[in-house]
Amino acid sequence: MKFSVTSVVAAILAVVNGLPSTPLPELDALNVIGGVTWTGEVLPGKNVTFRGTIQEVQAQILAEDPDYFSAHENETSIEHETHLQKRWELKQPPDCSYGHFMRRIYAIQFINQLKGYGGGEATCGAPPRRGPGLGGCSRVACNWGSQMWLCNDNDYHLDLPCTEVASALFELSNVCYTVQQGGDTETQGQLFTTDNWNVIIDYYGDCHSKATVG
Fold this sequence. Notes:
Layout: H1 5-16, E1 26-27, E2 29-34, E3 36-43, E4 46-52, H2 54-64, E5 102-103, H3 104-114, E6 121-126, E7 136-143, E8 146-152, E9 158-161, H4 162-175, E10 177-179, E11 185-187, E12 189-192, E13 197-203, E14 211-212
Helix pairs in contact: 3-4
Protein name: Secreted protein
Signal peptide: 1-18
Keywords: Signal
């Protein structure tokens, strides 16, 4: 690996001054509002729309009908499926150093929820970018600090089928992971697509805070 004189000097100055070489980006989650919009028939003849993270959406569904998901509990796991919607192309290799590790078993659970099991139509949205290098991000899944994000680098609001977002997150979890002593698998990272949106797997704080990751 080659280093320029400028980059070496900058790195030395950063250390001397006690400053990080690059600022840690902050993810602004639509004022901490989840990016999933779900529309479906929870009760016969009653079409409803719920918004939030996928976990918040499911809680709203269960408040309407506590037995709603029982009819779907035997659906096939994502690990054995080949028909996840993939309309995106990889822009560059995923950044596996981004974020903080979460357990991959939870990542797969989130992805299963995002891909639409339980019926209905789920759309994942993110606001326009806030400026150069500052994507507009929304939190699409979160539980006890384990989080998944959709970030938009376009100048317009982005809406995607959550199956497409789930496909990118699944790819990220398959590439960026580590196996801990004892066999537990953890995952983190960021995956960019050629359509100027990206997904993030992270563990930070709780499900109601802004996340600063590096």
